[in-house]
Design goal:
Helix content: 40-55%
Structural class: alpha/beta
Distance between the termini: 19 Å
Number of strands: 14
Strand content: 5-15%
Number of helices: 23
Radius of gyration: 36 Å
Shape: elongated
Largest sheet: 8 strands, mixed
Length: 612
C-alpha cells in the first residue's frame, strides 16, 4: 500500500484531459520522416542520422505511451458491454483454482477509485467519453450501449480488469447476493451454482419462483462436467422429477415434530404451537412404538381422527407384558373412575385400559410413547379442537392429491417409477438437486415445504456434528436459496449460524432487505439473518434500506477536496499599482467508500463484492 500513489495528489485529472501528446507525437513523426529524407538525399551522414533516429524514436514511443494512457483512461468511461462464456470457458478459468471462487472480471476497489468517482460526480462526464468506435479499438471490448441500464463511469474508474479469485474458505460464513429485479441476480446465482457443480460439491438449490433459466443452466453445467443430470422436485409437476421424503431420516420422534413445527404460520400463538408440537410428537412416538414409519398422511390422519387407534394397541401390548393376571376383576371400579370419553369413537375397552394404566401400570412400568398419547387423550377437547383447526390446514396442504405421493412415497407402488429420495440420500450420493416451490400461485405451500426441508437439512447438520464429521471431514454441501425472503425460517438461520463447520455453505439471494424485514416481522429480526451472512455481492438496488446496509458494510474512506480562489486588486486612481493572488486549499472528509446513490445506477451484472 505504501508504494501506491495517493489520490490526494490530484494526478487523476491527467486521465480526463485532451491527449495533447498527440500533437507532439505527430511532430516527432514528421521529424523522423524529415531525418530519413535527409539521409537518403545524402545531406546528412549515417552517424548523425543514427543519433537523430534513436532520439526521435525514443520521443515517439514516450509521447505515444503518454497519449495512449490518457486515451485509455477516457475510453474506460464508456464502460463495457455484457460478454458471455460457455461452461468449457468457465472450467478453463477455474483450472488451477480448485480451492477458489471466481467472482468474475473486475478490479480491487481502493480509496483512489472512490476519489475518482466522487470527482466524476462534479463533472459533465459525457464530455469526457471518447467516440464508441475509438473506445472499442483501445479497450478491445464493446462499450456499454446508450440504451443500457446503469452508468458506465462506475466501472470506468479503473483502466483494466483482471480475473478475481478468492479462497473458498472466505465464504464459509455465508454469502448474501442482493439486487433488484432484472439486475443480473439470477445470472450471478447461476454462475455460483455452476462453479459448485464443477467443483464436485453436493448442490442443493431452493428456488421459490421456479426459474427455468437457472434450472436449464444447472442441467448444462452437470453435462459439461460429466455429472449426473440434476434431480428435480416441483409441486406443480408432481408426475416428473423425484419423490422427496422430508420424514425419511430421523434419530428420534422429536425431530419429526420439529420439522412439522417449522411449517406452522409465523403468527401462530406460541402456546398453540407448543401443544401442536406435543401432539405431533406423541403421534410420531406412537407410530414408532408400533413399528410403523411416520409419514405425513399418517400423522394428518391421527391428528384429524384422534390418537385412539394408536393408544389402544400400545396399551394392550403393555398390559399383556406388565399387568397382573387378575387386573380386569377391577374393571367396574376402573370404568367408574375413568371420566367422560373424549369422543364417541372411544371404545369402553380403551377407557378401561387408560384408567388402569393411569392408576397402576404407569407406576409399575411407564412408557414414554403411551405417556404422550395419554396426555393428548386427556387434554381438553375444546382446546384440542382449536389446535387442530390451526394444524390441519398445514397438514392438508402436504397430504392432498399427488403432492402426498411425492412427499410420502410408497416404495411398494409399482405404478410410480419416480425415484424415491431424501436429502440424506442426495448428500450421500453427491447429487445435484433443484427444488422448485411454486411460490407465486401458492405461497403458503411453498413456505411450508421450504420449512420442512430446511429443518431436515439442519437436522443433517446436527447429525454430522454428533458423528464427528464436522471441520472438513464430510462432503461439502453448497446450499443456494433464491428469494430467501419467501422461505426464511429458524432452521435456515441455524444453518447460517452453525452449518459451515458441518460442511454446509449457504448462499442467500434476495431483492431488498425490506422484503426480509417484512417476512421476519421487524428490521431487527432481518439484521439477525444478515449478521450471519459474512460476505456480500450487491448488484443494482433501488431500495434505500438495502443501499444503506451495503454502504455501511463497505465502510468509509477519506475523500480529498480541493478549492482554488483567485483575487485581483486595482486602484481607483490613475496610479499604475495592481495586485493579484491565488490560494489553493486541500482538505479531507470521511465519506462512504462507495456512494449509496451509485448502487441504484450499476449496469446489469455489475456488482460490488465484499469478502470477509
Amino acid at each position: 500500500m505504501s508504494a501506491r500513489k495517493l489520490s490526494q495528489t490530484f494526478e487523476r485529472y491527467e486521465s480526463w484531459r485532451p491527449a495533447y501528446e498527440l500533437v507532439a507525437l505527430g511532430a516527432w513523426v514528421l521529424s523522423l520522416t524529415w531525418v530519413t529524407w535527409l539521409y537518403f538525399s545524402e545531406k546528412l551522414p549515417l552517424s548523425w542520422c543514427a543519433v537523430l533516429w534513436a532520439l526521435i524514436v525514443f520521443l515517439v514511443v514516450l509521447r505515444g505511451y503518454q497519449a495512449w494512457r490518457v486515451l485509455i483512461g477516457r475510453a474506460a468511461l464508456s464502460g463495457a458491454q455484457l460478454s458471455f462464456m460457455d461452461y468449457e470457458q468457465l472450467a478453463q478459468r477455474m483450472k488451477g483454482h480448485e480451492d477458489d471462487l471466481w467472482l468474475g472480471r473486475g478490479f480491487r476497489w481502493w480509496p483512489e477509485h472512490s476519489q475518482k468517482l466522487y470527482e466524476l460526480m462534479k463533472l459533465d462526464w459525457t464530455q469526457l467519453q471518447l467516440p464508441k468506435w475509438l473506445a472499442k479499438i483501445l479497450l478491445g471490448v464493446s462499450p456499454l450501449p446508450d440504451d443500457a441500464q446503469g452508468l458506465p463511469i462506475i466501472h470506468g474508474v479503473s483502466e483494466k480488469d483482471e480475473d478475481l479469485y478468492r479462497p473458498l474458505k472466505n465464504f464459509e460464513g455465508g454469502l448474501c447476493l442482493c439486487g433488484t429485479t432484472q439486475a443480473g441476480k439470477g445470472v450471478y446465482l447461476s454462475h455460483l451454482v455452476a462453479q459448485a457443480i464443477a467443483r464436485g460439491d453436493v448442490v442443493i438449490v431452493i428456488d421459490p419462483k421456479h426459474s427455468s433459466r437457472l434450472k436449464n443452466n444447472m442441467l448444462h453445467a452437470c453435462r459439461a462436467c460429466s455429472r449426473l443430470d440434476p434431480l428435480t422436485f416441483h409441486p406443480a409437476f408432481p408426475d416428473v422429477g423425484i419423490r422427496l421424503d422430508p420424514m425419511h431420516s430421523f434419530t428420534n420422534a422429536t425431530e419429526i415434530a420439529s420439522r412439522i413445527r417449522q411449517a406452522f404460520p409465523p403468527n401462530m400463538d406460541e402456546s398453540f404451537a407448543n401443544f401442536a408440537w406435543m401432539a405431533v410428537n406423541a403421534i410420531a412416538q406412537g407410530l414408532i412404538a408400533l413399528e410403523i414409519r411416520p409419514t405425513l398422511p399418517l400423522i394428518a390422519k391421527h391428528v384429524r381422527l384422534g390418537i385412539y387407534d394408536l393408544l389402544e394397541p400400545l396399551l394392550e401390548r403393555h398390559v399383556a407384558q406388565y399387568a397382573r393376571d387378575n387386573w380386569e376383576e377391577e374393571a367396574a371400579e376402573l370404568l367408574a373412575n375413568a371420566g367422560w370419553a373424549p369422543s364417541p369413537a372411544v371404545t369402553q375397552r380403551l377407557m378401561l385400559l387408560v384408567a388402569f394404566y393411569e392408576k397402576e401400570l404407569h407406576f409399575i412400568k411407564s412408557d414414554p410413547a403411551i405417556d404422550g398419547l395419554v396426555e393428548v387423550f386427556r387434554h381438553n377437547r375444546e382446546h384440542y379442537s382449536k389446535i387442530t383447526a390451526s394444524l390441519l390446514p398445514i397438514l392438508s396442504m402436504l397430504t392432498t392429491g399427488k403432492l402426498a405421493d411425492s412427499l410420502s412415497p410408497s416404495i411398494t407402488d409399482i405404478h410410480d417409477t419416480r425415484p424415491v429420495m431424501s436429502l440424506e440420500k442426495v448428500i450421500n450420493g453427491r447429487h445435484v438437486l433443484y427444488i422448485g416451490l411454486d411460490s407465486m400461485p401458492n405461497p403458503t405451500v411453498a413456505s411450508t415445504l421450504a420449512g420442512i426441508w430446511l429443518a431436515d437439512l439442519a437436522n443433517i447438520a446436527g447429525r454430522r456434528y454428533n458423528l464427528g464429521l464436522s471441520g472438513g471431514k464430510a462432503p461439502r454441501i453448497s446450499l443456494f436459496v433464491d428469494e430467501v425472503s419467501n422461505v426464511i425460517n429458524v432452521p435456515l438461520i441455524e444453518i447460517l449460524n452453525k452449518g459451515a463447520e458441518s460442511g454446509i455453505h449457504t448462499t442467500c439471494a434476495m431483492q431488498t432487505i425490506a422484503d426480509l424485514a417484512h417476512r421476519m416481522g421487524s428490521v431487527q429480526a432481518a439484521h439477525v439473518v444478515l449478521g450471519n451472512l459474512n460476505n456480500l455481492i450487491a448488484l443494482r438496488t433501488k431500495d434505500r434500506m438495502t443501499q444503506d446496509f451495503v454502504v455501511s458494510t463497505l465502510g468509509k474512506t477519506y475523500i480529498a477536496n480541493q478549492t482554488l480562489s483567485l483575487s485581483t486588486r486595482a486602484p481607483n486612481n490613475l496610479n499604475p499599482s495592481y495586485g493579484s493572488g491565488s490560494a489553493r486549499q486541500l482538505s479531507s472528509n470521511l465519506e462512504a467508500l462507495f456512494p449509496a446513490e451509485f448502487l441504484g445506477r450499476l449496469p446489469n451484472c455489475e456488482a460490488i463484492v465484499q469478502v470477509s
